[in-house]
Each structure stands twice: as structure tokens, then as C-alpha cells.
Amino acid sequence: GAVVSQHPSWVICKSGTSVKIECRSLDFQATTMFWYRQFPKQSLMLMATSNEGSKATYEQGVEKDKFLINHASLTLSTLTVTSAHPEDSSFYICSAGQGLAQHFGDGTRLSIL
Amino acid sequence: QQQVKQSPQSLIVQKGGISIINCAYENTAFDYFPWYQQFPGKGPALLIAIRPDVSEKKEGRFTISFNKSAKQFSLHIMDSQPGDSATYFCAASRGPGTASKLTFGTGTRLQVTL
After folding, report:
1. Identity of the residue in A2, A31, A107 whose CB atom sits nearest the CB atom of B42
2. Collapsing DSSP states into helix, strand and coil, what is residue B84?
3. Do residues A21 and A94 touch, judged by C-beta distance below 8 A?
4. Burial of A5 (0-12, 13-18, 19+ CB in 10 A)
5. Residue B92 near chain A (CB below 8 Å)
6. What spatial distance separates the first Cα and last Cα of chain A, rounded to whole Å?
7. DSSP string of A56-109, one letter each residue
8. Taking CA A67 as the corner, what is the angle to CA A61 and CA A69, rounded to the nearest 5 degrees?
């Protein structure tokens, strides 16, 4: 149980392109989902918290106009990286809340050329 | 300000040995303490978690020890196996009873040798 699916797992695109990443809780409903960014050999950095049906709460220093988050249903949240640039290349991971626990997807490796 | 300090940064343990990873927190409002295991290229997987009202929790070969007065908690992996080689993160969050944002430790890279 508590499976979180993240898609795509890997994307390469040109600078200036917008990229959408999906996060789905497959066997439970998640009122709250979280988006993280992880640099190589580093810990997870929380970017934003999204609650179903309301605006996401962004962490300090995260540009909300660049990282658009939509949590339209209890099983789906999306992160759109708008006008992506090479510095946005990273490993993006979502999690979905179930009770106190957070269950993570397998991440999306984003490479901007 | 790092609110959860994790040590060691890396750890090498022989097969069958005990792996011990320690974390210390500062915020006394934290009331949920999970441990995650992450393999390269994958997302973290929840291993085990504890609330402050108990001092120890065991699930299979994994045990969390919790010391509320010292604001410390640790993960013990008994009979460590090569398949346990991964990065382990401790984390902490505060109420109000549903999933809330986690503060992660810096991670420990565990290698279990034959």
C-alpha cells in the first residue's frame, strides 16, 4: 500500500521549454502533497506544500511563478517548471501525505540543455 | 539554521554487523520522527517512524531509539546486509495530526561490505 507514482521519471528538454511533472497517489487519497528538489549527494529541499483545492504554499526563495503547482484532486498534483533553464536541472521528488506519514514518488530527473 | 543534525555522514559496516545512525533536533515542537531509505535514482522510502510518547520502536531488523530529554533519536539496523547499502535520512515534523512538512537531516551513506 501507499504507492506514489511520479511521471515522467526522466526528461531532457531545451532551455525555455516548460515541463510538467505529475504526482499521483495510487491507492490512497492525499489532501496534502509536497514537492522537493534534491541536488546530487545532498538532502531533500522542500519547495512547496500543496493542498487539494487551494493554492500551494511555497518555501522562502522558491519562485512561485516559475514552479507552478496544481493540486486539482485528492490523488493528483502537478509541478510545472516554466521557461526552464539549465540551472533548473535537478532531481524533483513529490510526496503524498497519509496520516502523519509522507510517501514519496521515485522522482523526476530534469535536464535542461 | 539546520534543525535536524545527522551523523555520521558515511558509514561502513561488515555484513551481519549493527549499523547505527544518530540524529539530534532542536525544535521541541517536533512530534513525528520518520526514517527514510533512499537508493540512487529513487525516491526515499519510509522505513520506520516514532512519536515522542515511546522510547523505542522495532520493525524487523530496524529499531528507532528515542530520547526526548536529550532531543536525540537513532536508527539501528541489526544484522546489516549488502542490500541495506543506501542513503538514510532522518526527519522530523510537527502536528497538527496530518502530514506536515518534514525537516530532513543531511543523510548518511551506508555501505555494508561482505
Report:
1. A107
2. helix
3. yes
4. middle
5. no
6. 37
7. -EEPTT--TTTEEEEEEETTEEEEEETT--GGG-EEEEEEEEETTEEEE---EE
8. 115
Quick count: other Cβ atoms within 10 Å of Cβ B81?
A: 14
- Whether B82 has a pLDDT exceeding 60, the answer reads yes
pLDDT in tens, chain A (113 residues): 789 999 999 999 999 999 999 999 999 999 899 999 999 999 999 999 999 888 899 999 999 999 999 998 999 999 999 999 999 999 999 999 998 899 999 999 999 99
What confidence score (pLDDT) does residue B94 get?
87
- Residue B80's φ and ψ, nearest 5 degrees, are -55, 140
Q: For a pLDDT cut of 90, what percent of chain B falls above it?
A: 89
What backbone phi and psi angles, to 5 degrees, belong to B112? -105, 120
Q: Name the pairing type of β-strands B10-14 and B108-113.
A: parallel
Alpha-carbon span B31 to B53, nearest angstrom: 9
3 state SS of B59 = strand
CB < 8 Å to A95, chain B: 43, 99
Cβ–Cβ gap B32/A100 under 8 Å: yes
Note whether A103 contacts B46, CB cutoff 8 Å. yes
3-state secondary structure of B1: coil
* Separation in Å, CA of A96 to nearest CA in chain B: 8
DSSP code of B101? P
